[in-house]
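Data card: per-record layout.
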Amino acid sequence: MENINKAVIINAGIGNWYGIGSRRLERSLNFVGWAGQTLIWADEYPPNSHRHEDYPYYMKIAAFEEAIRQGYTHILWCDSSMWAVNNPVKIFDIISEQGYYFFSSGYNLAQSVNDTALATVGLSRNEAANVNEWASGLVGIRIDNPNGKKLYERWKDLMDAGLSRGSRTHDNQSQDERFLFHRQDQSCLSLAAWELKLGNTKGLDMVSYKNTGFNAEQIIFFIESL
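The structure for this 226-residue chain is written out next.
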């Protein structure tokens, strides 16, 4: 991207192993020569965040808000399970060009969105079966791009509305046999992308679980819990 000073990688990891993962992420970015900025909250919430217990994963939105407040325009959220094995500048090239970045989780929204969230956006479960779920473990936003701005603002709207609330086990959130679990912030991101008719076919080999097949020439982030 043209102006690396406008680029930042953000993360917040609170409790359990997440803070350790945040520190691993930061070390890995230093190791691969990331020249942009980082905003990482290890074992603390970003400013003005709701608690995870009240609004699951709202710390992601709070981290974006702080990055925007500080004047960054190209922002990449990384979960604490992510660690860099190559410089992420190529992902920022996609963010710069497209306005956003995310990758497929492999599920559809009939499987991963509860009845409450589907009803709120007016999406039937039959329709949802044909809608891709996008992973929220690595999400890039260019806030001065129209598509990036709209995607982020709609994602935030759905999170503010409490639609990330729901269990990542089935927990009787739907009687439809296709429903498996609610993926909380990931469900909200995917619903926002569906409403705005946004998808992604770029850089899909840049993220992979560590112990599965991956494109060694393209990989930038491994996913591995601690």
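Known properties of this structure: The mean pLDDT is 96. Residues 14 and 62 are 13 Å apart (CA to CA).

See the next section for split statistics.
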